[in-house]
Structure formats: structure tokens, C-alpha cells
Design brief:
Layout (H helix, E strand, L loop, with lengths): L13 E3 L14 H10 L6 E3 H7 L9 H6 L8 H11 L5 H13 L8 H4 L3 E2 L2 E3 L2 E5 L2 E4 L34 H9 L5 E4 L9 H13 L7 E6 L1 H4 L10 H13 L3 E7 L9 H11 L4 E8 L7 H13 L3 E7 L6 H4 L3 H13 L9 E6 L3 E11 L2 E11 L8 E5 L22 H9 L7 E2 L3
Parallel strand pairs: 4-16, 6-7, 7-8, 8-9, 9-10, 10-11, 11-12
Antiparallel strand pairs: 1-2, 3-4, 5-6, 12-13, 13-14, 14-15
Helix pairs in contact: 4-5, 8-10, 12-14
Length: 454
């Protein structure tokens, strides 16, 4: 394993609502901007750290700097009504619990669990719902280890923001692996297990390795790939360099690969700046030397990366670092979507223009893709048929695998931002999958007892 040379060991320090005024660079902000951070962070989760603040944010370009916008709350991330409601509560004589109640009422308006995550994705075993797992697509199970339900820093667009705001009924978390192993053994159609969160790489290796050891010791022949969804490379590459268990973490990666399983690090990079530091480049090399592959993904977001040159640069940098561009997503319909949203047609134009600027080795990326209730749906493009302008889409993943790679057509709508905004083309009254989707959901309308591992 290649040993990285970093001039000094970084000591992680996080900043959130309670201490962000201690950040030296905060003095560059106006009092109004500081107030905005305080107000919005009462509703949406906020956490940054010293690496993001000192090495990624260009404070000469704040507040327009994309990494600042990625990690610091902005007034515009709440609607005017929600912002004023929260501000009034904070300036009232209300208690902390009463203020939190106001925040929770606002959060309920922000579609905290889009795409049926709570209602339709939670699997069952022996008549019980496993709230620390999701099984939406036949081959892939998502696992939410309870010790991984935070991140080194929070993305302001995060579609899993309810994990971080203390509303336990909105959390996915599972501490035990026994039922996970049992589920994987019983469901032989599952080939991929995705560790997600939060960020599983927030865990100390001793905890993470215990999950991996239990899974590998169970010798599950149908399990071919272990994926780790993480933002650690972008927000805290020292996890793999100088943290006290960095080498142990990489040895755990090596153990997965040597067991014969494919290890895929699903890395979230939202802007080329996150790929520019010596620390992230060395961390990528160290991970690649374990035999793991790194696949990269990001949503396309207004005010952060909504232009073709940014995406083309990002994909080129990723390939040059031996990473595999994987997905361009559409910002999910939750949280501050109104602030980040890019209409589907515009997102496709950006994707197409960026795609034209890169070589074939970068064109492993797919998008723009919506992780919607029926599945992952890609907008393939805009066409005209018999004088009618249409949008062509297809499933990349579906609740029914038979839907995958099947094209379908919607009326052209340059303002549509999500699948729910689209109408079928050619006079059809519904999309081909709607009746079957409704039937699938009706089968699970009665929810059984929940197994809670907290």
C-alpha cells in the first residue's frame, strides 16, 4: 500500500450553529449574512469543518463561492414565509422546545422523505420492517449503520437532511448486522450492498470493520459488490491519510477486495475545486491502491455547478485521477430544492454540452437522472415527432426491473423540474408504468410491526 506523505496531520474541527461565529473568516461576512446562517440553520442542518473552510472555500468570492454555498446556509434556501416564521420565533420569548416545534412544522413542508423512502422502500423479514435498510431495486440493498448517521460536513442540498435534524421518526438507522446478513442470505437476487447514511466513513474503522467482518464471515455467495457512499474524499480526505485509523481503514478495504468482492467507493464530488487539493489526490491514490474502484456522482445544482464547463472539467479531473464518472443527478424534490433546482430541459442541455467537451473515457457518466418514486429516470433528450415536441426518457433502475431501458415520452415542458411535472405525449392519459406502480403500492398499504434497532 502506498504511504501518503502529508506535511502535517490535520486535526478535525467541526463548525455548526452553536460555534460558527468562531470561524476566523466569518468576520468577512455582514451581520445580515451571519443572521441568515443562524436562522436557516434552525431548519436545515448545518455543519462545516476546518478543511472545507481553509482549503476549499475562496473567501474572496463569498457569498458567491460554490463551496461556501454548498456548505453554509443562505437566506434564499428557505421561502420568504418560512424564513420570516423562523426569524419571528427566534426573536420571541418562546422556549427552545417551542422554537424547535416551529422548525419541525416548517420541515414537514419540505417533503422530508421523497420518492416513497419511508412508505415503500423499507424491507421486511419475518413479518417485521427493517428500518435501517432500504430495498427499492431488485439487486441492491441500502444499509444505514446507526453509527454512520452524520457527515464530516453537511451539503446544503442534501436530500437526506432529516437524518441530521433530530427527528427520530424520520431516521433510517440500524445497529445490528444479524438481520442484514439473514436478509441477504434469503434474498439471493441481491448482488450489491450499499453502505450509506449520513456517511459511513464518519465511523471509526473498528466499528466499520465489525460490520464488514460479519458480512464477509457469513460467506454470502450472491453478494458480489460492496459499495460505500461517501463524501469523505471531498470533505475530509485526511480520513484516508492521517487520521489515527487511516491505515486500518485502507486495510479493511483491502480485505474486502481480497475476499473476492468488488469494492466500489461511491464518491460525491459536486465541484472541481473538491478535486484540486494535494490531500484529496493522495487520498484517491491510496484508496485505488487497495484494489477499490471509485465512482463519482453529483446532482446538478443552481448556484453551484449548473454550467457545462464545470461538469466537463470535473469529469476530466476525475478520470485523470482514475475515478469513474457515474451519475449526474437532478436535485431531489425536498429541502431547499427551490433554490438549487434546474429545469429538466436545461439540465439536459448542460449535460449534452458537457458531454461534447470530453473524450470517450469520461462518457461513463449517465444523466440527467431523477431518483423518483418509480425508479431512476434519465432524460435522454428533446425531439420532435409529427410536429409535436417531446421529451424522451428511460428507466436506469425501476421498482419493476422490466421497466429498465424502456423509453417513454412526455410532452415538452421547459419548466418541468421533476417527473411529477411531466405529462404523457401523443395523447396518452398516463405513463406506461403508472398502473403497475399503483398496484405495487397497494400490496404494501398495511404496514407491519417495525423492528427498531435504536
Amino acid at each position: 500500500m502506498l504511504t501518503a506523505h502529508i506535511p502535517q496531520a490535520y486535526v478535525y474541527k467541526s463548525y455548526a450553529q452553536h460555534n460558527f461565529r468562531q470561524i476566523p473568516q466569518i468576520g468577512r461576512l455582514t451581520q445580515e449574512q451571519i443572521t441568515d446562517i443562524d436562522v436557516v440553520s434552525h431548519v436545515l442542518p448545518f455543519k462545516s469543518n476546518n478543511y472545507v473552510i481553509n482549503e476549499l472555500i475562496n473567501w474572496d468570492n463569498v457569498p458567491d463561492d460554490p463551496i461556501f454555498t454548498l456548505t453554509f446556509p443562505r437566506k434564499e434556501m428557505l421561502t420568504t414565509v418560512h424564513y420570516n416564521t423562523m426569524l419571528a420565533a427566534m426573536h420571541s420569548p418562546a422556549s427552545k422546545d417551542e422554537i424547535k416545534k416551529v422548525a419541525n412544522e416548517i420541515r414537514k413542508d419540505l417533503n422530508p422523505h421523497p420518492a416513497g423512502q419511508l412508505e415503500h422502500n423499507v424491507p421486511m423479514i419475518e413479518g417485521h420492517r427493517l428500518t435501517g435498510m432500504q430495498h427499492k431495486y431488485r439487486e441492491t440493498v441500502l444499509f444505514f449503520p446507526s453509527q454512520g448517521q452524520t457527515c464530516h460536513a453537511y451539503c446544503s442540498f442534501c436530500f437526506r437532511w432529516p437524518q441530521f435534524v433530530g427527528m427520530d421518526e424520520w431516521k433510517f438507522a440500524m445497529r445490528e448486522t444479524e438481520l442484514l446478513v439473514k436478509y441477504l442470505q434469503q434474498h439471493t437476487e441481491v448482488t450489491d450492498l450499499l453502505f450509506t447514511g449520513g456517511d459511513p466513513m464518519i465511523m471509526k474503522n473498528k466499528i466499520f470493520a465489525s460490520y464488514i467482518d460479519n458480512i464477509l464471515d457469513a460467506d454470502i455467495p450472491n453478494l458480489q459488490t460492496i459499495r460505500i457512499g461517501t463524501k469523505a474524499l471531498g470533505y475530509w480526505p485526511y480520513k484516508f491519510l492521517t487520521d489515527d485509523d487511516a491505515d486500518d481503514t485502507l486495510r479493511t478495504f483491502e480485505r474486502i477486495v481480497k475476499s473476492g468482492k468488488n469494492l466500489a467507493i461511491m464518491a460525491h464530488f459536486n465541484h472541481p475545486v473538491e478535486l484540486s487539493t494535494p490531500a484529496v489526490q493522495k487520498a484517491i491514490r491510496r484508496i485505488r491502491n487497495t484494489g477499490a474502484q471509485i465512482r463519482t456522482q453529483s446532482p446538478i445544482m443552481r448556484n453551484i455547478n449548473a454550467d457545462a464547463d464545470t461538469w466537463a472539467e470535473m469529469w476530466r479531473k476525475q478520470v485523470n485521477l482514475n475515478c469513474i464518472p457515474y451519475y449526474m443527478f437532478v436535485a431531489r424534490d425536498t429541502g431547499a430544492q427551490h433554490y438549487f433546482q434546474v429545469p429538466l430541459v436545461e439540465a439536459w442541455h448542460i449535460f449534452r454540452e458537457a458531454y461534447q467537451k470530453i473524450s470517450g473515457v469520461c462518457r461513463t457518466v449517465r444523466g440527467p437522472s431523477m431518483s423518483a418514486t418509480p425508479g431512476k429516470i434519465q432524460l435522454l433528450g428533446v425531439s420532435e415527432v409529427n410536429g409535436e415536441k417531446i421529451m424522451t426518457l428511460r428507466f436506469l433502475q425501476g421498482r419493476n426491473p422490466d421497466w429498465v431501458a424502456r423509453p417513454f415520452f412526455a410532452k415538452y415542458d421547459e419548466n418541468a423540474i421533476w417527473l411529477d411535472d411531466l405529462k404523457p405525449a401523443f395523447g396518452e392519459d398516463k405513463f406506461f408504468f403508472e398502473d403497475e406502480l399503483k398496484a405495487l403500492f397497494n400490496e404494501h398499504i398495511s404496514l407491519p410491526e417495525t423492528v427498531n434497532f435504536e
